[in-house]
Design goal:
There is one protein chain. With about 110 residues, this protein is an all-alpha fold. The chain has one domain. Helices cover about 90% and strands about 0% of the residues. The protein contains three helices and no strands. Helix 1 packs antiparallel against helix 2 (about 40-65). It is elongated. The protein starts with a helix and ends with a helix.
């Protein structure tokens, strides 16, 4: 009984993750139309990492339906953690880069 409820829970979670992944995937496709902009490329890379995390989480729940807990805990869980950490690091780098750009723009506008 508990295993059956857990399977339904994992199925609902997997569906929710895969549906949630469609929005950033659509966003990536829209960013592909603007290939020359550096900001678009950096935003696309961030979004790809987010999609990787979301899809790995969906696969994690699918694997749990089949009670392959060892595989999901030892492979997919660390993979999703690494994807999320890389996303956070890349996001932090982009924030710092944007602040530096804004600071340099404001300094040059004050000089004029």
């Amino acid at each position: 009984m508990v295993s059956e409820i857990s399977s339904y829970y994992n199925l609902i979670d997997a569906i929710a993750y895969f549906v949630a992944a469609t929005i950033p995937i659509y966003f990536i496709q829209k960013l592909d139309q603007n290939k020359t902009d550096k900001k678009s490329k950096r935003l696309k890379n961030l979004t790809i990492l987010l999609v990787v995390f979301i899809i790995v989480q969906g696969i994690y729940h699918i694997i749990n339906i089949f009670e392959l807990n060892t595989w999901s805990k030892e492979v997919l869980e660390p993979l999703s953690i690494v994807a999320l950490i890389f996303f956070g690091i890349l996001y932090l780098v982009e924030i710092i880069r944007e602040k530096r750009t804004n600071r340099s723009k404001s300094m040059t506008s004050h000089d004029i």
